[in-house]
Amino acid sequence: MSAEIPEAASAEEQKEMEDKVTSPEKAEEAKLKARYPHLGQKPGGSDFLRKRLQKGQKYFDSGDYNMAKAKMKNKQLPTAAAPDKTEVTGDHIPTPQDLPQRKPSLVASKLAG
Amino acid sequence: MFLKLSLRAVFLGAGGGNDIQWCFSQVKGAVDDDVAEADIISTVEFNHSGELLATGDKGGRVVIFQQEQENKTQTHSRGEYNVYSTFQSHEPEFDYLKSLEIEEKINKIRWLPQKNAAQFLLSTNDKTIKLWKISERDKRPEGYNLKEEDGRYRDPTTVTTLRVPVFRPMDLMVEASPRRIFANAHTYHINSISINSDYETYLSADDLRINLWHLEITDRSFNIVDIKPANMEELTEVITAAEFHPNSCNTFVYSSSKGTIRLCDMRASALCDRHSKLFEEPEDPSNRSFFSEIISSISDVKFSHSGRYMMTRDYLSVKIWDLNMENRPVETYQVHEYLRSKLCSLYENDCIFDKFECCWNGSDSVVMTGSYNNFFRMFDRNTKRDITLEASRENNKPRTVLKPRKVCASGKRKKDEISVDSLDFNKKILHTAWHPKENIIAVATTNNLYIFQDKVN
């Protein structure tokens, strides 16, 4: 850490600042709320936690898929766009072909090189 | 002053973080900046003797390094770590029932203490724990009667004499084989595994549950903690880490996303939903902000070797708790307090959710943890001094002492200091490990493993 004297001075400085301005954390919070006004309507906990627990979920319903396949036989198939990682909703139902291939690492680790 | 420092450095393991002069020793991994996702290092762990060092990566691979035997002529440095074994521990899976991708990333590796010639370790991904046996083969049988040396069968009618096959030495081969697979016990993602001091059982923890296993039994596991609420809408916290006490086989702790640690005693009841102790530092409600809970989430918990203390890592600090005192930590060390005024951008780029680990040195006198810009920090609990070092290939001449780094929070930047805005938040050191007996540390950057040693005169 820095030497004794400058640290004491900056601690005083900071206390002064805090008395005049809100803490840096609160200032950051204000910045965030300004950019995303709808954030944090619910307590921060549940949203993060639920997102965390659902990590890796890809939605594929075989029933929907087969019905869509049957429907699409009659209509023109929209050309499949490059599969992107965002959640797919609406008419475009993710198909097994759209899911990125999960292949095991065939190459040895570079740490062992 | 200098004399005092060099005398202290002679006592291995007793030196403080700043009395030690850290030198670059080795770096493993590719040099190129284009990092393949599979090469991202996800865990680092020394075994109990420190002779072996294991790493796990996002591609599900484990690489084990072995320390060279000390050369009598090479008194200026300790043995180097060279590749001993490497294997594919886990492979990617897809759970069709739940539409869930199961990553092959190795979340944790824990070594078993050595009982015989072979080495054993547990490695886990999000869903499955595996017990791996690593054994050496340095002999092979030769002189079969019915087989040629290359394995082809001989025509029995051509055999005219008999001989006894004998074992002959061969080039050392290190084989890894999965001996147990502990699967299907976790609905949520496994974040921790910890071997009990009884060396027979271990625990595995996911976001909401902790299970107890016997190392020999794969088809059964006991649930010892369950914090899943009846109604998931009421979910307020998750389990972030868990560990068994190093000496008391009945005691374990688990940390939460709300910054609390619960100590549980398995003798009290079969289901340890009621804690024996709850460690929580009271918070000033006037300081509370949107970020408070997120930055208080504990990303790692580690008992000291003595078992008297435990250390927790949250986003900005490292705290040391005395197991006898629940209402506040006995020591708090700021890792990178200057980030407090950057929380908004760190939330936007998701860095605020980074899970840093922490570790103790062998004598519990120094603790270490990582930061951004490939910096890592050490705190000496006795001298109260701390140091910031950098894992970089620029310093890679063996035996040159690493130069301490300093981040300038605000105002005038001094020469050699780096300003907060220049920090590279993609270069994070999440995983570090300290040799159990010596001043040798392993520090993982995104895809490289650095080994540093203290200067041996």
Protein architecture, described:
The complex is a heterodimer of chains A (about 110) and B (about 450). By secondary structure, chain A is mostly helical. Chain A has a domain at about 15-55. Helix content of chain A is about 45%, strand content about 0%. Chain A has four helices and no strands. The radius of gyration of chain A is 26 Å and the shape is flat. With about 450 residues, chain B is mainly beta. Chain B has one domain: YVTN repeat-like/Quinoprotein amine dehydrogenase (Methylamine Dehydrogenase, Chain H, 7 Propeller), CATH 2.130.10.10. Helix content of chain B is about 5%, strand content about 40%. Chain B contains three helices and 32 strands. Chain B has helices spanning about 1-10, 290-295, 345-350; strands spanning about 20-30, 40-45, 50-55, 60-65, 80-90, 95, 100, 110, 120-125, 130-140, 165-180, 190-195, 200-205, 210-215, 215-225, 240-245, 250-255, 260-265, 275-280, 300-305, 310-315, 315-320, 330-335, 360, 365-370, 375-380, 385-390, 405-410, 415-420, 430-435, 440-445, 450-455. In chain B, a hairpin with a 3-residue loop joins β3 and β4. The relative contact order of chain B is 0.15. Mean pLDDT of chain B is about 90; it is low at about 1-15. The chains are: A mainly alpha (about 110), B mainly beta (about 450). Chain B: This is Serine/threonine-protein phosphatase 2A 55 kDa regulatory subunit B. Chain B: Keywords: Repeat, Signal, WD repeat. Chain B: One of its GO terms (cellular component) is protein phosphatase type 2A complex. Chain B: Belongs to the phosphatase 2A regulatory subunit B family. Chain B: GO terms for molecular function: protein phosphatase regulator activity. Chain A: It is found in: Cytoplasm.
